[in-house]
Amino acid sequence: MVVGLPDERFGNKVVGVVSLVENCEIDEAELISSTREHLSGYKLPKSIIFVPEVMRAPNGKADYKWAKKTAEDELVS
User: Fold this and answer.
1) Residues 6+ apart with CB under 8 A from 68
2) Number of structural domains, the chain?
3) Alpha-carbon distance 66 to 70, whole Å?
4) What pTM was estimated for this model as a whole?
5) Largest Cα–Cα separation, the chain
6) Considering Cα of 43, then 51, then 66, then 11, what sign does the dihedral take?
7) Pairwise CA distance, residues 49 & 19, whole Å
8) In which domain, by residue range, is 13 found?
9) What is the dihedral of CA 16, 21, 50, 26, to 10 degrees?
10) How far from the centroid of its chain's Cα atoms is residue 53's Cα?
């Protein structure tokens, strides 16, 4: 899932919050590069946060509040 975080230069930047399937290995640069095949450059995540599990809301939809807080916490520290 992706969230928008404040960016001094552009106002907002796209940050990906990603969990990987078991035994899968990919680094941030490789993931962004493979995403480039499907998205325009301005839509690409500027960084990727890897988490053990992407949380879902009780209704099963993506929990964007959790993702945004996780991305903010990770990029600040």
Assistant:
1) 3, 4, 5
2) 1
3) 6
4) 0.83
5) 37
6) negative
7) 9
8) 2-76
9) -90
10) 12
**Size (the chain), residues:** 77
44 burial level (CB within 10 Å; 0-12, 13-18, 19+): middle
Full 3-state SS string of 21-61: CCCCCCCHHHHHHHHCCCCCHHHCCCEEEECCCCCECCCCC
Q: In terms of DSSP bridges, do strands 11-18 and 2-7 run parallel, antiparallel, or are they unpaired?
A: antiparallel
Distance CA 14, CA 68 (A): 11
pLDDT, one tens digit per residue, over 38-76 is 999 889 999 999 999 999 999 999 999 999 999 999 987
- Please report, for the domain that includes residue 28, its CATH number: 3.30.300.30
Q: Which of 49, 58, 37, 41 is CA-nearest to residue 76?
A: 49
Q: Output the CA angle 68-72-75, nearest 5 degrees.
A: 135
